[in-house]
Design a protein that fits this description.
Number of helices: 4
CATH architecture: Orthogonal Bundle
Strand content: under 5%
Structural class: mainly alpha
Number of domains: 1
CATH superfamily: Winged helix-like DNA-binding domain superfamily/Winged helix DNA-binding domain
Order of helices and strands: EEHHHH
Largest sheet: 2 strands, antiparallel
Distance between the termini: 58 Å
CATH topology: Arc Repressor Mutant, subunit A
Amino acid sequence: MASKNLQTNYIVQDEGVCGGKPRIAGARFKVQQVVIEYVHASRTVEQVLQSHPHLSLAQTYAALSYYYDHQDEIESDIKEGWEYAKQMEAGLA
């Protein structure tokens, strides 16, 4: 019996939405936002969901799954955002 490839549609990427960054479908919530809370701030999935009740458990795990498949890309986006924030604080941007 051949395997059937199942695909979920939780993560999308559109040129004109959220700066073209990967985001949760149906929401203006970037994958990197979940990652910042879960990975960088050491919050649990349950804490992320409490802070963002519009997200489902499946959407949150899909964002984390996407992150682990595209870790370099997402970490680069996060770093770019932090550097921009530092420039804004310093009045350089």
